[in-house]
Amino acid sequence: MKKILIIQNKRIGDVLISSVIANNYKTKYPDSEIHLMAYDFTHGVILNNPNIDKIISINEKELKKFGNLLKMIGHVRKEHYDIIFDPYSKLQSRLICKFGGAKQTVGHKSRKKIGNLGYYTHPVAILEKKTQICGKAIEDRIHLLQQVDTFDAINYEPKIFLTDKEQQFEVPIRYQDKKIIMLGILGSTPQKSMPYEYVAQLVDYIAQTFDCYLLFNYAPNQKEEADKIYQLCQHKANIILDIYAPSIRDFAVLMNKCSVLISNEGGTVHIAKALNKPTFTIFSPYINKDDWSSFEDGKFHKSVHLLDFLPNAISDLSYEQNKEIEKNPRALYLKLTPEMIIPELKSFLEDNLV
């Protein structure tokens, strides 16, 4: 029986898609023991996963302290792992791989020309382009898995495993007469958030065109910003304000009772897909759509990006301008107008609100 550690010290969506490593390894080797190390705020997407035997909680700020990192390396050494997978390859996780005592360590090579420096026994280049509908981010993780063994029947789809009690959850009866659209009105960061005035225009279009309830989703620290968007909306009658998911697990439970998700790109999109819910995703201009647009068929899962409409919007910029996009993408975001998005959104909702 082999003992496996997966280190995913990144955000919610990254943790969920990295669980495909555990899912596929456990399917082939059901007697293996698999641990997943992840930031404390991300655990909601991997709780109750039968393919993960233990979740090791880490705190993002605390792990960056050298003393805490040494303690974690010591803890890892005591576990005597056979294999460590490191999908994100941050400095802290690389050091855990280098000094953690595992027989095999698998992670991505640095994009910089500094060599492997002994971090991994199996350094792997990040794929240049996606070749699967799952998207490059998931494909890169499966590529890591395939360095240690042969897996003939790969399942690329992340899954959220809800408990029986969670599946039995119901929204209040006053909201059970219509379908509910979950709206991810804000991204996980300001750079991933569509301009508020555009969000309000899309909300008004949906409210006027489809007889559904609209449920705003946002993080607890984003309430003030969510209120700003709500105030910009002209058609508020069917917007639900008294249901809120305070945690990422609560969001998954609530999303399971909604019909579709319309959202800025981020972890909530991956959760909805893992629950087999239709998704419409709006990408920030600085995000590479091919990396994160998973399982898109143009109907059940659909997305829009500025480059879908203006292919040269970014390539025509200078190197210095491209470097500034991630810091402040608003100027480019404003070019992705509601008038561009609405025809795509209309066909998506007509396909999935039946």
Tally of discrete structural domains: 2
Helix content: 25-40%
- Summing up helix and strand content along with how strands pair, one would put the structural category as alpha/beta
What's the CATH topology label of the largest domain?
Rossmann fold
CATH superfamily of the largest domain: Glycogen Phosphorylase B
The arrangement of helices and strands along the chain is EHEEHHEHEEHHEHEHEHEHEHEHHHH
Low-confidence runs: none
Sheet with the most strands: spatial strand order:
3-2-1-4-5-6
The DSSP helix count reads: 15
Structure, briefly:
The chain is an alpha/beta fold and 354 residues long. The protein has helices at 12-28, 60-63, 66-79, 91-99, 136-145, 164-167, 196-209, 223-232, 248-255, 267-274, 289-292, 306-309, 319-325, 330-333, 338-352, and strands spanning 3-8, 33-39, 54-58, 83-86, 104-108, 122-124, 180-184, 213-217, 239-240, 260-264, 279-282, 301-304. The chain has 2 domains: 3-145, Glycogen Phosphorylase B (Rossmann fold, 3-Layer(aba) Sandwich), CATH 3.40.50; 169-352, 3-Layer(aba) Sandwich (Rossmann fold).
Question: Could you name the key traits of this structure?
Answer:
single chain; 354 residues; alpha/beta; Rossmann fold; 6-stranded parallel beta sheet; 15 helices; globular
Description:
This protein is an alpha/beta fold. The chain folds into two domains: 3-145, Rossmann fold, CATH 3.40.50; 169-352, Rossmann fold (3-Layer(aba) Sandwich). Helices cover 37% and strands 16% of the residues. The chain is built from 15 helices and twelve strands. The strands form two sheets. Strands 3-2-1-4-5-6 form a six-stranded parallel β-sheet, sandwiched between helices. It is globular. The mean pLDDT is 91.
